[in-house]
Design brief:
α1 (5-18) packs antiparallel against α7, α2 packs antiparallel against α3 (48-66) and α2 (21-39) runs antiparallel to α6. This protein has helices at 5-18, 21-39, 48-66, 78-83, 89-103, 115-133, 141-154; strands at 45-47, 110-112. Strands 1-2 form a two-stranded antiparallel ribbon. It is built from 7 helices and 2 strands, in the order ααβαααβαα. It is globular and about 50 Å long. Helices cover 68% and strands 4% of the residues. The protein starts with a helix and ends with a helix.
Length: 155
């Protein structure tokens, strides 16, 4: 890949201006709850990798709430999400055990549900849904800024 340094710099500046916690929270709520509906509602076991499809959005939501004033990019690494928020040592330990298990198994290896992780994820989704419902709408000038930014680069 090649990048235009002017575009990259401008995009980073735009993203910092347009950073929208409410929109990010909606995104992670949708990702996680969709996975819960597809995975947990149908079985008491799941593929280990699909467990992370449920957990990572929950940790991203926790990170967003804990780092409420941040305009940084949300870490992709689940361990960084846990370390940069207030996740308990017990949950960290369970997640790290699941990560180790995933490293040493086949792609579609199944695991039983883990109550402490299930409880954490479900409570986090409920808490974040409540939090999002109380947040203000994003200002309409963000759309105008986005339009201007992309028109400058596309025309």
């Amino acid at each position: 890949y090649q990048g235009d340094q002017g575009f990259v710099k401008g995009m980073i500046e735009f993203c910092q201006k347009a950073y929208n916690t409410k929109a990010l929270m909606h995104h992670y709520l949708h990702l996680g709850t969709r996975q819960i509906d597809q995975t947990w509602r149908t079985s008491n076991t799941t593929q280990i990798k699909k467990y992370f499809y449920i957990l990572r959005p929950a940790f991203a939501l926790r990170w967003l709430e804990y780092n409420a004033d941040a305009t940084d990019v949300i870490p992709m690494n689940i361990q960084a999400l846990m370390e940069q928020s207030d996740v308990t040592d017990n949950i960290k330990s369970c997640v790290n055990e699941l990560i180790a298990k995933k490293r040493n198994c086949e792609e579609k290896t199944m695991t039983s549900r883990i109550a402490v992780l299930d409880d954490f994820a479900l409570k986090q989704y409920d808490q974040s849904q409540e939090h999002v419902s109380q947040m203000l709408k994003s200002p309409p000038e963000i759309t105008k800024l986005a339009d201007e930014f992309f028109r400058n680069w596309l025309i």
